[in-house]
Amino acid sequence: MGRTEKHRGSRTHGRGKKAGRGAGKRGGRGNAGLHKHKFITTVKYDPAHFGRYGFKRPKRPSEKTLKTINVGQLEERLESFIKKGTAKRVGDGYEVDLSSAGIDKLLGSGKLQKSLQITVEGASQLAISKVESAGGKVVMIGKEAMEENTSEAE
Known about the structure:
- By secondary structure, the protein is of the alpha/beta class.
- It is built from six helices and seven strands, in the order ααβααβββββαβα.
- The strands form two sheets. It has a four-stranded mixed β-sheet with strand order 2-3-5-7. Strands 1-4-6 form a three-stranded parallel β-sheet.
């Protein structure tokens, strides 16, 4: 006769009142009762379990990221600028309006063979020198151009 058969007809099958029902013998499942019947254990072994500690750094508003293009990329993408209407052929060279194309700054990486007259908000010194050495010109508009004009006047 096995154990189960032996306990047939008894209410608890030899386990006592609560041991046979769910998680009764261990006082609930998981973290149940940490503020009630398991409170001493919480205080002793995990005192930092409840509450908030430290602080969360507030998010800083990010500065506007500049959209940039290099002079080498500009020459490669010249046809697409012409199709969009932000560039046009004028005589031997091209006129390119980068500010209307949504580009904020011209950078100097790459090679430039074509003569370009570029209108842009900002440009690096290397980009300006490369455009001028290829027979072009950079016209700066907006905030950065005003800062350079004021520094030259002083």
